[in-house]
Amino acid sequence: MTSESSYRPRYGAAYPSLVDSVVLITGGGSGIGEELVRQFARPGSKVGLIACSRRRT
């Protein structure tokens, strides 16, 4: 499903290839950010994530 020139998710949008790219995602520890980490890593990107949480008292 992944080609070298573009990645096409199931809804039809085409994006340039991110294979061997570096992607930094903030909020990557949970929720939408966590899913973005998975999606960017799938086609072969190098993914860095930043996540922090505050303890509520």
Short recap of the structure:
This protein has one domain (18-57). Helix content is 19%, strand content 25%.
Word description of this protein:
With 57 residues, the protein is an alpha+beta fold. Helix content is 19%, strand content 25%. The chain has one domain (18-57). It contains 1 helix and 4 strands. Strand 1 (6-7) and strand 2 form a beta hairpin. The mean pLDDT is 77.
Shape: elongated
- Identify the strand order in the major beta sheet: 1-2
Summed up, the domain count is 1
Distance between the termini: 46 Å
Mean pLDDT: 77
- Whole-angstrom Rg: 14 Å
Number of helices: 1
Please estimate the helix content: 10-25%
Structural class: alpha+beta
Order of helices and strands: EEEHE
Largest sheet: 2 strands, antiparallel
Percentage beta strand = 15-25%
User: How many runs of DSSP E, i.e. beta strands?
Assistant: 4
The low-confidence parts are: none
Tags for this model:
57 residues, alpha+beta, two-stranded antiparallel ribbon, 1 helix
SSE layout and pairings?
Blueprint: E1 6-7, E2 15-16, E3 22-26, H1 31-41, E4 46-50
Parallel strand pairs: 3-4
Antiparallel strand pairs: 1-2
